[in-house]
Design a protein that fits this description.
The chain has three helices and no strands. By secondary structure, it is an all-alpha fold. The chain has one domain. The longest helix is centred in the N-terminal third of the chain and has 33 residues.
Length: 95
């Protein structure tokens, strides 16, 4: 496999991850509407930022070929992933 095929595969997997994350967020949000527990809502917020952070760099690479923007989108992606994990941990620890 050459580099272009690998990059295309990563982009397709990012789109699949985005859709599966949206499905999971929808399921958890429906559970929140039933039980009205704030922990689930914080967990959904954290999961949303986590999914966006995981897929952000690959989605940006679909729309722009600029290497500088792709490199900084990877950095921003990692920061968003860390924030999402922190929000999820806070929601769980808050109980």
């Amino acid at each position: 496999m050459n580099g272009l095929q690998i990059e295309t595969m990563q982009q397709m997997l990012a789109i699949v991850t985005l859709f599966l994350g949206a499905l999971l967020i929808g399921v958890i949000y429906n559970a929140y509407r039933i039980v009205r527990q704030p922990t689930l809502l914080l967990f959904v917020y954290g999961l949303f930022t986590l999914v966006v952070g995981i897929t952000f760099a690959d989605i940006v690479s679909i729309f722009t070929p600029d290497a500088f923007i792709i490199a900084w989108s990877a950095v921003f992606s990692r920061i968003v992933v860390i924030l999402g994990l922190c929000v999820m941990a806070y929601g769980i620890l808050r109980g």
